[in-house]
């Protein structure tokens, strides 16, 4: 096994280890003593075989060898040294003087040749010279090794840097770039060296990037820092964002010349710097900025961004004497779909609506989601009202086709209010507010249409706001009243049911009828609270009369579409009924055909649940709504109420009488009860009796009355018409 050798040079304070090999014991002892006298660490080997053994056991700096040794010659020892300790120097001390032997020894690596007998001083001088040279060679090798390690370390640091490290010449050409450029941008360092750095600048940043290094104030304390986009190699990879910091180089502090490994040698460098990849930071900043100004569900501009663009558009319109339009869009029937199918389906519907609306826009228009199911649209640079009208029609038509949400096919419409600058307002807030006012007028007139704002709307709106305020206070102050209109048996004149009708005892305007405030209650979503109050009071009043002896008395209540379409409609209704201990079999709810047909599947399920509790179902205003009658035999319908418009038309030979005939005959055929509304004359009553219509209500028996008056009437078992007058 080869001995372990030190990599430190022998000099100053380190003793050279010398092997002396000879087959003459006296000469060997003399030579060893001479060397020890000069402080060398000497090992003696009597013969070549012993020398080889010592070489295998320990390391030597120098070997003095005799060539003529039996068995193992000096040449053999030199070969053994070359194999085991190649750095050990050799001096031949031999009596062999032939040219061939000397030449052979020198070729084998001997550093010098001393002929026996030797001069002690000459030998010591030769040993000292050889050892000195070996020491210098070792020191040089050590320094070289350290330099190589240092260069490798710095190269590793530079190439392992998370940033691109580069050097540029005076003109901006790369004269060095580290290998990080390959992983970040896809370029080999060698292909960029010699290229101008604008070669990798994005086209949008070439001018700014090239001008950056021309500034006169770039110093080591004031480096040039800028953010630019750099192109990646090939078209499949995206442009990336980098923060570049560049410093000037003092030529006196950079005397470097010669080649280095990798991208360039740095010759002629005038600038050095780093390029840090900040793409993720820029993308995060862009996303945060997007969140601040966009609706994440629809990806549309939000209210803040819409107002910014509208403000800018108003400025341009004023400067150029142009018009612009603001549209306020509110989806019809969205709340019904959202409550019925859930918010996830509602979100999908909003995204689908957005997709259709965007197809109707011109370049430069701004559609934003204002909140919920409300959208706003900015139309800059229009010529007249007709331009806005055409866009509004496109938007309405775009939403008329059904939307497919999973297994459900749903329909939504849109109500659009339009305000034109400058007629409808010269400020951002006025234009948005007035478009909103116009939209509410569309809602009040039947929805799914558009209207332009006019000054008269502001007056109506002021009244509407006052009425809305009063209606909210009416709920708090208990100003609502419940009146009852009797439903009478046409044969016996006996009261068989009572329809609960709401009135509002306004403190200033007196008694208001449903037509005066129910549309507003539905629009402002107050209809739910209002209906709950009416049902609570009706259950109390009629429940008391039922318990006092009128066990068959029926309570009929009208329900709004908003109530019926609510997902918890059945649960809420039955909780109210049970809270008042009202017998479910005495309750009849009245809904219109249109409510049923808006969502036949869902409404059918709710009606069946109510019927299972014993609640009766009546179709109000029958004959005025949906044309298909297919639902009648599919749903648990108990009663048809003939609309008063048909009853009023009962005259000899009038078409209205024919419609009543058909409705009554159909009700008999389906074994449904029938109630005729709006009966006012003997002629109408007799005609209905003759058809077999056994229940009627109307002014013939009196208008709706407060509970106190109805209680007195119920004390008469068989009532005459006059008693209700």
UniProtKB/TrEMBL annotation:
SUPFAM superfamilies, alphabetized: CheY-like (SSF52172), EAL domain-like (SSF141868), Nucleotide cyclase (SSF55073), PYP-like sensor domain (PAS domain) (SSF55785)
EC number(s) per entry: 3.1.4.52
Boundaries of every EAL domain copy: 464-718
Superkingdom, natural source: Bacteria
Family matches, as Gene3D superfamilies: 3.30.70.270, 3.40.50.2300, EAL domain, PAS domain
GGDEF domain location: 322-455
Family matches, as Pfam families: EAL, GGDEF, PAS, Response_reg
Reactions catalysed: 3',3'-c-di-GMP + H2O = 5'-phosphoguanylyl(3'->5')guanosine + H(+)
Domain Response regulatory: 17-131
GO-annotated molecular function: cyclic-guanylate-specific phosphodiesterase activity
Location of 4-aspartylphosphate modifications: 66
Regions crossing the membrane: none
InterPro entries in the record: Biofilm_reg_signaling (IPR052155), CheY-like_superfamily (IPR011006), EAL_dom (IPR001633), EAL_sf (IPR035919), GGDEF_dom (IPR000160), Nucleotide_cyclase (IPR029787), PAS (IPR000014), PAS-like_dom_sf (IPR035965)
NCBIfam families assigned to the protein according to its UniProt record, in alphabetical order: GGDEF, sensory_box
Protein name in UniProt: cyclic-guanylate-specific phosphodiesterase
Source organism (scientific name): Marinobacter guineae
């Amino acid at each position: 096994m080869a001995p372990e050798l030190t990599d430190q040079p022998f000099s100053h304070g380190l003793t050279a280890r010398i092997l002396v090999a000879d087959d003459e014991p006296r000469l060997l002892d003399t030579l060893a003593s001479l060397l020890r006298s000069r402080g060398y660490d000497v090992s003696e080997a009597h013969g070549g075989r012993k020398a080889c053994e010592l070489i295998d056991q320990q390391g030597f700096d120098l070997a003095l060898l005799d060539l003529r040794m039996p068995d193992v010659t000096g040449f053999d020892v030199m070969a053994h040294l070359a194999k085991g300790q190649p750095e050990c120097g050799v001096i031949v001390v031999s009596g062999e003087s032939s040219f061939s032997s000397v030449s052979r020894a020198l070729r084998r690596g001997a550093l010098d040749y001393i002929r026996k007998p030797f001069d002690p001083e000459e030998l010591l001088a030769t040993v000292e010279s050889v050892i000195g040279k070996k020491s210098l060679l070792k020191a040089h090798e050590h320094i070289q090794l350290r330099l190589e390690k240092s260069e490798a370390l710095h190269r590793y640091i530079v190439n392992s840097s998370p940033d691109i490290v580069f050097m540029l010449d005076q003109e901006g050409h790369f004269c060095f770039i580290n290998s990080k450029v390959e992983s970040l941008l896809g370029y080999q360092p060698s292909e960029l060296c010699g290229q101008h750095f604008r070669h990798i600048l994005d086209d949008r940043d070439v001018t700014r990037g090239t001008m950056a290094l021309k500034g006169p104030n770039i110093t080591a304390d004031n480096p040039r820092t800028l953010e630019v986009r750099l192109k990646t190699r090939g078209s499949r990879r995206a442009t990336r964002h980098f923060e570049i910091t560049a410093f000037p180089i003092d030529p006196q502090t950079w005397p470097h010349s010669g080649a280095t490994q990798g991208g360039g040698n740095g010759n002629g460098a005038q600038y050095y710097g780093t390029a840090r990849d900040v793409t993720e930071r820029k993308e995060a900043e862009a996303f945060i900025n997007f969140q601040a100004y966009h609706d994440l569900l629809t990806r549309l501009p939000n209210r803040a961004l819409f107002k910014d663009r509208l403000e800018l558009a108003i400025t341009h319109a004023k400067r150029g004497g142009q018009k612009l339009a603001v549209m306020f869009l509110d989806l019809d029937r969205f709340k019904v779909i959202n409550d019925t199918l859930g918010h996830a389906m509602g979100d999908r519907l909003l995204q689908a609506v957005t997709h259709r609306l965007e197809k109707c826009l011109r370049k430069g228009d701004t559609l934003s989601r204002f909140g919920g199911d409300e959208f706003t649209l900015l139309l800059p640079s229009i010529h007249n009202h007709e331009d806005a009208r055409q866009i509004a029609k496109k938007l309405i038509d775009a939403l008329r086709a059904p939307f497919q949400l999973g297994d459900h096919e749903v329909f939504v419409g849109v109500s659009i209010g339009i305000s034109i600058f400058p007629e409808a307002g010269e400020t951002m807030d006025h234009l948005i507010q007035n478009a909103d006012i116009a939209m509410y007028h569309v809602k009040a007139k039947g929805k799914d249409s558009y209207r332009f704002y006019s000054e008269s709307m502001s007056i109506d709106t002021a009244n509407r706001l006052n009425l809305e305020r009063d209606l909210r206070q009416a709920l708090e102050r208990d100003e609502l009243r419940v009146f009852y209109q009797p439903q009478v048996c046409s044969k016996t004149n006996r009261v068989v049911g009572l329809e609960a009708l709401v009135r509002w005892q306004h403190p200033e305007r007196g008694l208001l009828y449903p037509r005066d405030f129910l549309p507003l209650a539905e629009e402002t979503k107050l209809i739910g609270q209002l209906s709950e109050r009416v049902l609570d009071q009706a259950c109390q009043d009629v429940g008391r009369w039922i318990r006092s002896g009128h066990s068959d008395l029926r309570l009929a209540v009208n329900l709004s579409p908003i109530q019926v379409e609510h997902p918890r409609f059945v649960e809420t209704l039955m909780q109210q009924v049970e809270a008042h201990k009202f017998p479910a079999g005495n309750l009849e709810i009245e809904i219109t055909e249109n409510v049923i047909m808006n969502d036949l599947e869902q409404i059918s399920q709710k009606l069946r649940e109510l019927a299972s509790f014993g609640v009766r179902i009546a179709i109000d205003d029958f004959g005025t709504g949906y044309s298909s009658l297919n639902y009648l035999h599919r749903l648990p319908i108990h009663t048809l109420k003939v609309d008063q418009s048909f009853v009023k038309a009962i005259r000899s030979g009038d078409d209205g009488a024919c419609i009543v005939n058909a409705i009554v005959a159909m009700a008999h055929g389906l074994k449904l009860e029938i109630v005729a509304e709006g009966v006012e004359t003997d002629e109408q009553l007799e005609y209905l009796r003759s058809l077999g219509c056994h229940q009627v209500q109307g002014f013939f028996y009196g208008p709706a009355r407060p509970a106190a008056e109805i209680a007195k009437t119920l004390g008469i078992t068989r009532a005459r018409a006059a008693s209700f007058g």
